């Protein structure tokens, strides 16, 4: 097996040190490899010694060494595997696609392991100062992991100097070489000094439990090693300092969680969820009274009130003395544009497909006076469903419309047409039917629209972990049943492609349906569905799953009736302004032109409606180059 192993990989490398915890049984060693695979570790490690190369003759003859050495040699004589058994283990690891690593305790063992084709070497703490052995390992030109237990700062620095001269690729593991190690002796803070000696560091733990090992991740460990045993009560010095399966599994899961949560240094990024909560919970500068154009703004004109949709109170003093560039009503937000000279007004845009903008009932007339889109996408909240549209719409409009169904209904009920809970599903069906009825009634204001589309996040979310793949089938089947129970006469329900980590109630959840492209194609073909391709959502999906987004776009395009266009980056940077994320809109535009040339679109920009739609107009200006 070749894993192209390198110590420079971004992912933390987790080693299950089996060592001699097989107690001389190759059957037990094979069992431990299988269990290590179940643990989710990156590597299993063994040890190889030629005792005649490691110990002097008098020690092997038990001629006067202390009892500790005599005890160790006795165990090794009983527990060492044969060379043939080591080869069987290495071959088994290759077959099972898990990396085999072995610590050579002598040059003869190193020569044997070279014949196995191992990809890297581990040096035990006891051999950190064994320059002749390390020199031989350097000659293999393979990466080296070295434990630093039992060595002083000066010794470590001398070894590092030697390795650097040999131009070796290596990692130093902080370690306390006692079994088990008492917490007060572990001295994790020394990892900070170790990192000054060499930038690539890790941790080899012998403590009871896993807390220090987890803490080492925050201190910069990129390689983590722990001993693995089937039973800590077995004979042998390492078992007591080892982890049994359940605790090792907890360690692996926790390391991956910490790894994901460490983030980046430098500028502090705000997550999508934080931005949502910031706007919901923080405060803005708002007009405390009417302000005329040209009037000088003073403190009496400004209040600090929630929500945080406008100019931050951080700019209070900057706003003082400015002349109002527009008329303000009481409670109108101030925006960054009130401090700047920027201005961007909507104009007549030229696109090869129908385009629109998202609106609410209450701001429809404002946008209708500013622009002339081909369609409006009404984003309904659950409170909007109780409004009379005729209070906001008058007469007939010569354009189209789309409805975006609420995701959240009263009493914190999230739409879920896939729920296996009958009572929960029934409530979702009732609310969805209300949306359908509202959509049909809106056709009187937009007579050119014969079968309006309803964009919906149809459900399939979970709180603490993803739904297992086989169980998702039942949720898709439930969605099919739900469609049969809805009166969809005269409308078209189009599910939206979803991101893997939606934000509900100010926190992250797991989305399970209408995320993966193969599932989407299968359900669309089966039910004759069309989709709303939310570009930003699906880009996050591809980032999370390490998929080619543009291949995803090619596959979803034939099923696409409507588009939500916004940029994206990472796994939760959605709804970004066009060209401010990671997407290539020129390439995407060509894919959409071929795959869904008639699909309509809106710019789906986070808070694009603020400041009189500034974010929408900027997106449309930029999208004109690609669509």
Q: Overview of this structure, please?
A:
The chain is α/β, with parallel strands linked by helices. 37% of the residues lie in helices and 17% in strands. The protein contains 22 helices and 26 strands. Strand 4 (121-123), helix 7 (131-138) and strand 5 form a beta-alpha-beta unit. Helix 1 (26-39) runs parallel beside helix 12 (245-262), helix 11 packs parallel to helix 12 (245-262) and helix 20 (549-556) runs parallel beside helix 21. It is elongated and about 105 Å long.
Any key phrases for this structure?
627 residues, alpha/beta, five-stranded parallel beta sheet, 22 helices, 37% helix, 17% strand
Which runs of at least 5 residues are low in confidence (pLDDT < 50)? none
The major pleated sheet works out as:
8 strands, parallel
Tell me the strand percentage band.
15-25%
N- to C-terminal separation? 47 Å
Strand ordering within the main sheet:
3-2-1-8-7-6-5-4
The residue-averaged pLDDT reads 91
Gross morphology = elongated
- Fraction of residues in H or I helices: 25-40%
Number of helical elements: 22
Secondary-structure-based class equals alpha/beta
Report the C-alpha radius of gyration, rounded.
32 Å
Using DSSP, what is the number of strands?
Answer: 26
Short account of what is shown:
The chain is an alpha/beta fold. The protein is built from 22 helices and 26 strands.
Topology:
Blueprint: E1 13-19, H1 26-39, E2 43-48, H2 51-54, H3 57-60, H4 67-79, H5 83-95, E3 99-104, H6 107-116, E4 121-123, H7 131-138, E5 144-147, H8 153-165, E6 170-175, H9 183-186, H10 190-197, E7 201-205, H11 211-218, E8 223-227, H12 245-262, H13 272-281, E9 284-287, E10 302-305, H14 316-319, E11 356-359, H15 364-370, E12 375-379, E13 400-404, E14 408-409, E15 413-414, H16 422-442, E16 453-456, E17 461-462, H17 469-485, E18 492-495, E19 503-504, E20 507-508, E21 510-511, H18 517-527, E22 531-534, H19 535-545, H20 549-556, E23 560-565, E24 567-569, E25 573-576, H21 585-595, E26 600-603, H22 610-623
Helix pairs in contact: 1-5, 1-12, 11-12, 20-21
